[in-house]
Write a structure and sequence with these properties.
single chain; mainly alpha; MOB1A kinase
Length: 184
C-alpha cells in the first residue's frame, strides 16, 4: 500500500479499546445504533452514560475511521501530488511550535501522530474504569476533532476521484456525515 520512499508511519496502527471495558460496551452501542442507519440517533449520548466517556469513545472511533480511509489513498497522496497543505495559523503546540510549510502526506503524518499521542495519554484519555477525564477534556477532544476534519477535507478536496475509483465514496460519505452529526 505504501510506496518505497514513503514513511511507514503515515498509516497509524488502530487504536484499540480494551474488550470487556465500559468504553468497549459504549463502542458496541455506537456500532449497533450506526447499523440502524439513523446517524442522528447514533450520535446521541445513551441515557445514563458519561458525556466525556461518550466523546472519548467516539473520538477514538473517528481516528480509526479516518486512519483507515486515508490509508486507502496514501499511494495517491504523495510529495509530488500534494506538495503543500496549510496548517493555518497554529501548529500542534507540543513538537511543532510554529506552523511549517510541508506536503499533505507529511502534514497528515504529523497530525495523526499528534492525535495518537493524545489518545495514548492516560491523563487525557484514561482507559481504566473510574478514572476521571481531565477538566480540559472537552477542549482537547474538540481540538482533535477539528484536526481530524482537515484529513476529511483533504481527502474530499484532493482525492475524491481516487475514492470513487476505489468505490469507497459511500463509506467516506457515511463516515463524514456521522462525524459532522457528532461534532454538531
Amino acid at each position: 500500500l505504501l510506496s518505497g520512499s514513503r514513511s511507514s508511519k503515515t498509516f497509524k496502527p488502530k487504536k484499540n479499546i480494551p474488550e470487556g471495558s465500559h468504553q468497549y460496551e459504549l463502542l458496541k452501542h455506537a456500532e449497533a445504533t450506526l447499523g440502524s442507519g439513523n446517524l442522528r440517533q447514533a450520535v446521541m449520548l445513551p441515557e445514563g452514560e458519561d458525556l466525556n466517556e461518550w466523546i472519548a469513545v467516539n473520538t477514538v472511533d473517528f481516528f480509526n475511521q479516518i486512519n483507515m480511509l486515508y490509508g486507502t489513498i496514501t499511494e495517491f497522496c504523495t510529495e509530488s501530488t500534494c506538495p503543500v497543505m496549510s496548517a493555518g495559523p497554529r501548529a500542534d503546540g507540543t513538537n511543532i511550535k510554529k506552523p511549517i510549510k510541508c506536503s499533505a502526506p507529511k502534514y497528515i503524518d504529523y497530525l495523526m501522530t499528534w492525535v495518537q499521542d493524545q489518545l495514548d495519554d492516560e491523563t487525557l484519555f484514561p482507559s481504566k474504569i473510574g478514572l476521571p477525564c481531565p477538566k480540559n477534556f472537552v477542549a482537547v477532544a474538540k481540538t482533535i476533532l477539528k484536526r481530524l476534519f482537515r484529513v476529511y477535507a483533504h481527502i474530499y478536496h484532493q482525492h475524491f476521484d481516487s475514492v470513487m475509483r476505489l468505490q469507497e465514496e459511500a463509506h467516506l460519505n457515511t463516515s463524514f456525515k456521522h462525524f459532522i452529526f457528532f461534532v454538531q
